[in-house]
Design goal:
mainly beta, Lipocalin, eight-stranded antiparallel sheet, about 15% helix, about 45% strand, globular
Length: about 140
C-alpha cells in the first residue's frame, strides 16, 4: 500500500511537468548567408514572438564590410511565418525600389534549423553588400 502511494505521489508531481509543451523554436540561432546571420526569438504569448535578426559581412582587405539589423514582433507557427516591418522613410513617389515594408519569410525545418528569405524592402535595414537571407541553426539544436 505504501509503495502504491509513493508511485502515485511521484506521478502526480512529474505529470504536470511532462504535460507542459516545450517551445522548440524559441532561442538563439546563428548561421550564414551573404555573411554571418543571427536570429533571436523570445516567446511572448500564444504564437507571438519578439524577433531580432542581424547580418554582418566583415571588412576584408580593401573590401568594405556590411552590417544591419531588424527587430519587432512576428506571428509564428512551428513551420514558420512572415516577418513584416514598416519602412519609416517609405515614399511612393520616390522610386519603384521603395517598399512600404520589409518582408522576411521564416521557415523552420523541425530539426533545429531555420531558413530566412528576404523578400523585399529591407535595404534600409542593412547595407548593399549583405542581407537577411540564409540558413541558421538553433544554438541548442544539438541538445
Amino acid at each position: 500500500m505504501l509503495r502504491s502511494l509513493l508511485v502515485a505521489a511521484t506521478l502526480a508531481l512529474t505529470l504536470p511537468a511532462l504535460a507542459q509543451e516545450v517551445n522548440t523554436i524559441e532561442g538563439f540561432y546563428s548561421g550564414s548567408g551573404e555573411g554571418e546571420l543571427s536570429m533571436d526569438l523570445t516567446h511572448l504569448d500564444e504564437d507571438r514572438y519578439a524577433i531580432d535578426i542581424g547580418t554582418l559581412v566583415p571588412m576584408e582587405n580593401d573590401m568594405p564590410g556590411c552590417a544591419g539589423g531588424i527587430s519587432g514582433e512576428v506571428l509564428l507557427t512551428k513551420r514558420g511565418g512572415n516577418f513584416f516591418v514598416e519602412n519609416e522613410d517609405y515614399d511612393p513617389n520616390v522610386t519603384l525600389l521603395s517598399h512600404r515594408q520589409c518582408e522576411i519569410a521564416i521557415s523552420f525545418d523541425g530539426k533545429g534549423g531555420v531558413t530566412l528569405e528576404e523578400k523585399e524592402g529591407c535595404l534600409s535595414f542593412h547595407g548593399a553588400a549583405c542581407g537577411f537571407s540564409g540558413t541558421l541553426t538553433h544554438d541548442a539544436g544539438g541538445i
